[in-house]
Design goal:
By secondary structure, the protein is mainly beta. Helices cover 0% and strands 58% of the residues. The chain has a single domain (21-105), classed as Immunoglobulin-like. A four-stranded antiparallel sheet has the order 6-5-8-9, with no helix packed on it. It has a three-stranded antiparallel sheet with strand order 3-4-7, with no helix packed on it. The chain has a two-stranded antiparallel ribbon with strand order 1-2. It starts with 7 loop residues before the first strand and ends with a strand.
Length: 107
């Protein structure tokens, strides 16, 4: 069995090489949740970031993030205010990356 390991490196102005984190959307926690849940994500470079919550039917429920973010790890808190119990999806989108995850809200 072969194991492939991939890394992203970036040279700084001083010539140092630094490991860049890949784009990543973390699973929200806690999950299931009530009344709030935290969504973490990492981006390797300054990017326009969109995080949108959808219901089971694909209807857009709430835009959590829609702005340019600096590289690194970020977190946003989703407040279930005015939402029914059930299964929801959130999608992280940036230039060239998109990932969706499922979250469960229980009252």
């Amino acid at each position: 069995m072969a194991i492939n390991i991939y890394s992203c490196y970036a040279a700084t102005s001083s010539g140092e090489v630094q490991l860049q984190q890949p784009y990543q959307s973390d699973q929200n926690y806690p999950n299931p949740f009530n009344p709030t849940s935290t969504i973490g994500y990492s981006i390797p470079k300054t990017s326009l970031v969109n995080i949108i919550v959808y219901d089971l039917y694909g209807k857009e429920i709430k835009v959590l993030v829609n702005e340019e973010k600096d590289p690194g790890h970020h977190e946003i808190v989703f407040d279930r205010k005015d939402f029914a119990s059930g299964i929801y999806f959130y999608t992280l989108r940036t230039a060239g990356f998109s990932q969706s995850k499922k979250m469960i809200m229980m009252k």
